[in-house]
Write a structure and sequence with these properties.
Number of helices: 11
Radius of gyration: 24 Å
Order of helices and strands: HHHHHHEEEEHEHHEHEEH
Number of strands: 8
Strand content: 5-15%
Structural class: alpha+beta
Helix content: 40-55%
Shape: elongated
Length: about 325
């Protein structure tokens, strides 16, 4: 009886505090039971069995840090959620756009994890489903490891902002010109990387050699010259013409790699195969050079292509 009376006399602040605590628990429960979270984590776990132990930590949907306070993912103190579309942001976009945003943001994270990125430069862009000539792109000023679903910016084919996302950062219109040239001819996803091996092979006159199965899988390989950071209209047209029929990958001379696809997954698959082929060729050529030095035999060098107009892109 005394317990009931004492609780009835509880101050209003205590009641409000208890209500807030219950609301927090409810929100946490909703996040933990979110269907998309569980599905994406299941996919990540199933695809990363046997790989490096820090792979899942880098893509984990929640925040993750090691016991000593250092993240295993590119030196960040915390890994931000890929899917941060909650509350008002969730209602703002259609289901198909939410899924695309999460997949594209995850691809940016993968690119950073594999170290195929270059600071804040380059882009991965995707056409928004059910919207005419609208595309998602990364904000200019955020590293790939920091991209989230909400931070992606929606633009038109000219690079004008339609939806700024959750940041106030601009779009690199000059950098988008390369991607827009390929979107214009019907490509849904354009994936551009600056990996060490890819850039090295792009500087070789011999191009990509048939040294492994990955090099055969990505055939036919398209090649396109690179004349500078801001491609002109003529160079955009040349890039469109250089993309061979049935080709999903382009080696930009002295620059890097590009893959295209109908989905984010397809573009990633082509890029992964192409990058692996470049890495193998890079190592083989190094082994040939070392063997020639050790054995004292002459060897044939792949002449390096020099482009005086090359700049960062």
């Amino acid at each position: 009886h005394y317990f009931i009376q004492s609780n009835l006399r509880m101050p209003r602040e205590s009641v409000e505090r208890d209500v807030r605590r219950m609301e927090r628990k409810k929100r946490v429960k909703e996040v933990l039971e979110d269907k998309f979270r569980s599905e994406l984590e299941d996919v990540v776990v199933s695809q990363t069995e046997g790989n490096k132990p820090n792979f899942h930590a880098g893509l984990k949907i929640g925040s993750s840090s090691s016991s000593n306070g250092n993240s295993e993912f590119r030196g960040l103190a915390n890994v931000r959620q890929v899917n941060d579309l909650h509350g008002v942001l969730r209602e703002k976009y259609s289901k198909t756009e939410r899924e695309l945003r999460c997949k594209l943001a995850a691809l940016y994270r993968l690119t950073a994890l594999f170290e195929w990125d270059h600071l804040i430069y380059s882009h991965i862009t995707a056409r928004v489903p059910d919207e005419k000539d609208h595309y998602l792109i990364n904000p200019y000023g955020i590293q790939y490891s920091e991209i989230t679903a909400s931070s992606l910016i929606k633009i038109d084919i000219q690079g004008n902002i339609i939806d700024p996302g959750s940041t106030v950062l601009p779009v690199n219109k000059a950098g988008f010109k390369l991607n827009s040239a390929l979107h214009t001819v019907g490509q849904d996803v354009v994936y551009h990387t600056h990996s060490h091996a890819g850039t090295a092979i792009s500087a070789m006159n011999c191009g990509l050699l048939n040294l492994c199965q990955e090099a055969l899988i990505v055939r036919p390989v398209s090649y396109s010259s690179y004349q500078g950071f801001v491609p002109s209209t003529e160079e955009q047209k040349q890039l469109q013409e250089d993309l061979l029929e049935d080709s999903h990958v382009i080696i930009l001379e002295n620059h890097g790699l590009v893959s295209v696809g109908e989905t984010v997954e397809e573009a990633f698959l082509w890029m992964a195969q192409l990058t692996k082929a470049c890495e193998i060729q890079w190592r083989v050529l190094r082994l040939v050079e070392l063997a020639a030095i050790v054995l004292g035999h002459p060897y044939v060098k792949c002449l390096v292509r020099y482009n005086a107009h090359s700049t960062m892109g």
